[in-house]
Design brief:
Layout lengths: L1 H11 L5 H7 L3 H10 L5 H21 L1 H10 L1 H22 L2 H4 L2 H16 L17 H18 L6 H8 L2 H10 L2 H28 L1 H19 L7 H35 L1
Keywords: Membrane, Transmembrane, Transmembrane helix
InterPro entries: VCA0040-like
Protein name: DUF368 domain-containing protein
Length: 275
């Protein structure tokens, strides 16, 4: 449930991917398998994994949206620098997990570069001016919110690609955040149903890619994460307080990534020794 809370916070912030945080927390492939497994004979086992994780995400989205709005409005630089440290800190672990020195060929380095370019290029199309909150919605607006949720869920589950950033590009981010803050049920249902369908379909594709092209898929995803560094980087203000706070937040993010990776590795070793 605490891992769900961490994923929920990341999903609220444009540029930060819930899929990346799932990788940091060591649950990414378990998450993909559980979503796929909902339609199998072992659905109860997978549901037992997804329910507490989902509760953590939902509780965060409904309760911390005000806090995230405040942090992004008042202290965007330190907030983004924390996630920047978290994301940079996980890259060495991902490279180690796939044993890149042995498994990577020039093609895989090429895929990594392509992934970084694809996500990094989105920096040049982002709009710093937020759209107005949509009011007096008609059926076509709900259709847009549904498909926006569908597209965003595809991004949410891919490391390095932010679902919130997709909402931002579509001009839906303020409306979605406002709906979470004010418990606007119709908007939440429209977006949530799109997200649910998108997660199921995308998880099947990712499972196929991991099964058939594991190293290539890892390389592309690491590229996505590298590219997201460009998107998340907020620039540096001349304000000395903000500068020192941002450096501290960046270090805390990096340390958090290291500790999470360390404890996940220790837990895996314990499980293997017990078995």
């Amino acid at each position: 449930m605490f891992k769900g809370i961490a994923m929920g916070v990341s999903d609220l912030i444009p540029g930060v991917s819930g899929g990346t945080i799932a990788l940091v927390l060591g649950i990414y492939q378990s998450l993909i398998a559980a979503i796929n497994g909902l339609f199998s004979k072992e659905w109860k086992q997978h549901l037992a994994f997804l329910v507490p994780l989902g509760l953590g995400i939902i509780v965060t989205l409904l309760t911390l949206s005000h806090l995230v709005e405040f942090l992004l409005a008042e202290y965007p630089q330190p907030t983004f620098f924390f996630f920047l440290g978290l994301i940079i800190g996980i890259i060495p672990t991902l490279l180690k997990d796939i044993d890149y020195k042995r498994s990577f060929t020039p093609i895989h380095y090429g895929l990594l570069a392509i992934g970084a370019i694809i996500v990094g290029a989105s920096y040049f199309v982002k709009d710093n001016e937020l759209s107005a909150v949509m009011t007096h919605l008609v059926w076509s607006d709900y259709v847009l919110l549904f498909f926006g949720g569908w597209l965003a869920s595809t991004a949410m589950i891919l490391p390095g690609v932010s679902g919130s950033f997709i909402f931002l590009l579509l001009g839906l981010y303020p409306t979605v955040i406002n709906a979470l803050s004010t418990f606007n049920i119709p908007v939440i249902i429209a977006v949530g149903s799109g997200i649910a369908i998108g997660l199921v379909l995308t998880s099947r594709l990712i499972t196929y890619l991991f099964t058939q092209y594991k190293t290539g898929t890892y390389a592309l995803m690491i590229g996505f994460i590298v590219g997201s560094i460009i998107v998340i980087y907020p620039g540096i203000s001349g304000n000395q307080f903000l500068l020192y706070t941002s450096i501290y937040a960046f270090l805390m993010g990096g340390i958090s990534a290291y500790l999470l990776s360390y404890f996940e590795t220790k837990k895996t070793v314990v499980k293997l020794s017990n078995s």
